[in-house]
Description:
- The protein has 651 residues and is α/β, with parallel strands linked by helices.
- A hairpin with a 7-residue loop joins strand 14 (268-274) and strand 15 (282-287).
- Helix 5 (89-95) packs across helix 12.
- It is globular.
- The protein starts with 19 loop residues before the first helix and ends with a helix.
- It binds 5'-O-[(S)-ethoxy(hydroxy)phosphoryl]adenosine.
Amino acid sequence: MSEENISVLLEEKRVFKPKEDFVRQTNVQKWMDKNNIKNLDELYKKTEDWKWFWEKISKEMIEFYSPYKKLIEWDVPWVKWFVGAKYNIVHDALDKHVKTWRKNKVAFIFEGEPGDVRKFTYNDVYIEVNKLANSLKKLGVKKGDRVGIYMPMLPELPIAMLACAKIGAIHSVVFSGFSSLAFRDRINDCEAKVVITCDGFWRRGKKVYLKEQADVALEKAPSVKNVIVYKRTGDGVPWTAGRDVWWHDLIFDAPKQCKTEELDANDPLFFLYTSGTTGKPKGIIHAHAGYALGTAYTLDWTFDIKDEDIWWCAADIGWITGHSYIVYAPLILGTTSVIYEGAPNFPGPDRWWEIIEKYNVTSLYTSPTSIRLFMKYGEEWVKKHDLSTLRILGSVGEPINPEAWMWYYKYIGNENCQIMDTWWQTETGHFMISPLPITPLKPGSATRPLPGISADVYNDKGEPVINAGGNLVLTTPWPGMLRGIYKNPDRYVETYWNKFEGIYLAGDVTRKDDDNYFWIQGRADDVLNVSGHRIGNSEVESALVSHPIVAEAAVIGKPHSLKGESITSYVVLKGGANPTEELRKELREHVGNEMGKIARPDEIWFVTDLPKTRSGKIMRRVIRSKALGKNVGDISTLSNPEAVEEIGNAK
Length: 651
Ligand code: WTA
């Protein structure tokens, strides 16, 4: 990335200050009052002593079985937090609550797409988790074993995750929208012993038969000994006797109590696979105690969680957002959460607004893509509903354009709600750069690093820059930080720690303004952000090339008004093959089968050659510039400069 190439986002001058009476009652303001901190600047200043801060906050947020001997061991880039402590996240998420009045508080309100509703109190979740945890043990799952989970938005998904955590097993959830093959790759990489899935689920009025998809993956997954199937639709499913077992049969007479395993604070809690620039998705490792603290603190301070709140994080649990802010953080804080199974616009474009009205939702956390979708339908759909219970709104996954921000602020928040534009990643585990409820907002900016977090913007020489695009970096360790990439320590070091010594490279182009506000502009590397989801260009290329007719492929992202970025691919066919409309469709479906529907290219162009360097590397950047009608720069060093012309004329 050259500095000249980094475009600087338009200058947004508007500032929205939170109302004083709102500020006064926030959790963060009360914390500041208690600690004699007078204003935001002083808060940031004081918390530059991050060790002091995390030590203090950990005492307020989480409960260890036995105390730690050392706050942190930082052997760059390997970290351990709360060294020597015994801990399990399930203690904070469930066990501690059932000993208090929260035992009978609702933890999850589940609404199925067809309209069916189920409510789970903390005690209900606790009992279900215990029963499943005992059943997993009966199947031979032990501490450290991996369990692959392929489930949609059902309350049984958090229950399954917590049951694994309870006994010290490591869950690896795969988004239910990913294809069989994507699921297969992931369970093989982590060598899952058991898989948990369901017969099917509802999406846009139709049933998706997930067990059938899981079975395709399981044809070649030798490590998997048993498959637990939750019954959602009740339709018949293919069955492998001896391997498959119904969830309800398995837990039928399982004991209702199960001792929570007292783990080392740094034992792994889960792996979650995410896209990188090269090769296969990376299995990001997160550990129990640091992750628990980081997620709980950030949710509490940023969204100002109160006991009366009805929290709705509308992400999918299959992504990090759902892991952290549907499952773990809300439970640790004893919050009531909404889980909705289906499509946002089914049966009508006001399904979400209906849900907010029905359950008196107080905070909505979603992605700019969803906001733009609702913007397209128009505010008439919003106005049909009473959304006056909303207190705080949130956005995540991609830069939010100021227009979408303003629409969200005006029509959903009724100009009354702070908008939390939270920047973070699968790797960071929790929010890193985000407003607090007391922060003056600028539309399109995630504002400043949260207390305890140190972020900066560096040019390629590693010098901090202001008012210019550069590399977003994190300069001190944080509790929820990833503990590596499963089975690939070298890739961990190379991806995040090689560019600047001892400094974490996030991979996002960012600008910092005079007020220290961060403006995240998008990925600096070859990773696409489609509807807030990370997809590696190289993964889509491999999927295309795995089709027998394709010789070579290059994938680029184009700006898209709804999805942020759309996937555009240039394909070279093997000798003599004819480019046809049918073939275009077939290749699209092929990528869908390989990876999942979200990775299907929006555009497929056929060309006879792709621009390459003399060493044979495909020049995505040149292709992208040409495709967008921008200056392609000096192409004289390419081995085939004429291929650039063809990109412009591709059919
Ligand atoms: C992008 C999702 C701008 C960014 C939690 C990051 C954002 C990647 C924001 C991580 C935001 C996330 N503003 N960009 N508020 N939040 N991103 O791992 O490019 O699925 O690196 O985690 O999403 O995506 P991931």
